[in-house]
Amino acid sequence: MPSYFCCFFAHMDTLSAPQLTRTATQPVYRPDIDGLRAIAVTSVVLYHADIFPFRSGFVGVDIFFVISGYLIGGIILRSVLTGSFSFATFYARRARRILPILIVVILATCFVGWWLLDASDFFLVGSTSTYALLGLSNFSFWRLQGYFDAEAALRPLLMTWSLGVEEQFYFLFPFAAIVLLRIQILRSYSLVVLSGFTIASFAFGVWCTARYPATAFYLLPPRAWELGIGVTLAAVEINRSPFTYRLSRLLATASFREFLSGLGIVALLVAIFGLDKNTQFPGYYALLPVLGTAALIATPQSRLSQVVLSSRPLVFVGLISYSWYLWHWPMMSYLRIVAPAPPTSWQLGSIALLSFALAVLSWRFIERPFRSNAAPTLETLRRYAIALCLALIFPISIKVGRGIAERLPERTTQIAEMVGDRLDGACTAGWMETEPRLTSDCVHDVPGRPSIALLGDSHAWALSPGIRDLAQSAKLGFRIFTKPGCPPLLGVSVTRMEQPLATEACAAFNSSAIRRIADDKNVKLIVLAALWDNPVDLYVGHPVGANSAANGLELLQSGLMRSIETLKRPGVEIVVLGDTPYFTVDPYRIALADSLPQRRALFCLVRSDCSVLFTGSIGQQYLRKHSTVAEAVRTVALRASVTHFDLMSSFCSSTSCLFRQDDRLFFLDTNHVSKLGASVALRGLPLPR
């Protein structure tokens, strides 16, 4: 249950705390902090809109975390110190601040999804909506994917992950503050304890970023230090020790104050414009937005804070920042879902402006009235508990109903089932698995008959139904050893920012899988398949550092040649499959749009060429141009005297490519074939006798 209602299960009485010898300073409104909010939300929105030069506007969330820690953490510390803290009052304020517009946005997202989404996507909306209303959506997205993955852009409620982190922090921090300030020995060292926890969280975040990036990004323990910096800043203001007195005297010096604020804004600008989605984040790089924000909060009397950050335009954007943050992402996400290809910057920019207008209305007619409601505390909590329970009915119904496929036309359901029927990971090793799977789905023998072996990445996995069908029709055995993102190379692996440890796991998997096939005397045909045309800078020598002088293309060629030489033996035929077509549009999303009238209307609003795309046969201009990698793979096959089997010609002529026939899909996304597509692609594959 979110922190704003946990008080129903705790006592409501005001907690007393030992009185300070000095009076705690009460927080006052600071327009410059709203200016900081404006910078944060604008950088996030324009980054999501793919507007240059906001290459790393995602750091706006880190700015929000520091501001939140400073303001909300400061309120908690002050009230605990003065003996006026009440769980009921605190969580009632959080409910008034967070819930009204959040409920409206989530329910609006669900209602739009009812009309636009297939059952699987709608199920995810229902599931993530439920978690978001309970303050736990960061856990939901942590399990699904990394923030920078392509699929993340198709999650309409992804922006709620940061709310989950904050609410979990404010569920725990009041208890920590009470313990810290009621035990005299801890109270005497409160700044040291706060700083210690903040540094420990930062160190854990750096460690996680290098090994488990999704954990570092989505979960509270590696993120708590960002809020902790804000809390510590508030604690420094409240505490009147000799250290803080000297610090305040230093900040009162105009030259130092201006220097610190200037340093802060430079750090923010470098963070917003100087990083990109390939940066290992949060990690050390998060120090830029976090410390930059802290520096600006610590210098409210600087000219930058007084003139720029406190200016009326920035303050207004800051006031509506919460609503803008909530509205912009579902709207952009639905645009991406409906469009068969990434939307243009001007289309996403238009959504940013539209969501801004919606945010202004939401702030005026939802946020302000509910926040200023003066109902008694317990009555406020009761009302919001009821509202939350009612709001949960719709998303839980979606989740329980598995996306409520009954609302969709039969044609849409049939198209979606083609995808669901293919999503079988029985023979696909996970990111961190180092051994091929050996179940009966993956290893099957026919007495007295030879076997086919398929090795490769997710492209091999997509082709595996075709291999099974060929083997069964010819009464052959089969071995299917696949692992996503892991082409069948020896001595060479692939780096993935979202899964750093997968580099070692991929190398170990290939070593094991290739050794098993090489030692298997029953295997007479070995098929190697992959998305060879990865960006060549992803290929690295293994062990890491080996062949470091070679470029990515040379590494690919040497790794493939080493695999072929290891597998080669008398009586065994080796086939290297070329790449399948890689479309710049998504055939599955085109087929869905063609089957749903409302989605088709929006699709054609976004794409002027929709009538061409709905034919199922499109020109070569819709293909991602293959680089020299394809020719390099063919060259290796020729040098090794093995067969190179072209998959492109199965779907493409010199002028056009076929990706669907009526509602029968040959492709499930931009580059993975369907079951039917696998059968089409592998026609003519030479089989052992």
Radius of gyration: 29 Å
Please list the strands of the largest sheet in the order they lie side by side. Answer: 1-3-2-5-7-9
Q: Structural class, from secondary structure content?
A: alpha/beta
Task: Write down how many β-strands occur, each being a DSSP E stretch of 2 or more residues.
Answer: 12
**What oligomeric assembly is this protein in?**
single chain
Rough shape?
globular
What's the mean pLDDT score?
A: 89
Percent of sequence in beta strands: 5-15%
Q: Would you identify the regions where 5 or more consecutive residues have pLDDT less than 50?
A: 3-25
> What distance lies between the first and last C-alpha atoms, to the nearest angstrom?
62 Å
Largest sheet: 6 strands, mixed
Query: What is the overall number of helices?
Result: 27
Please bin the fraction of helical residues.
Answer: 55-70%
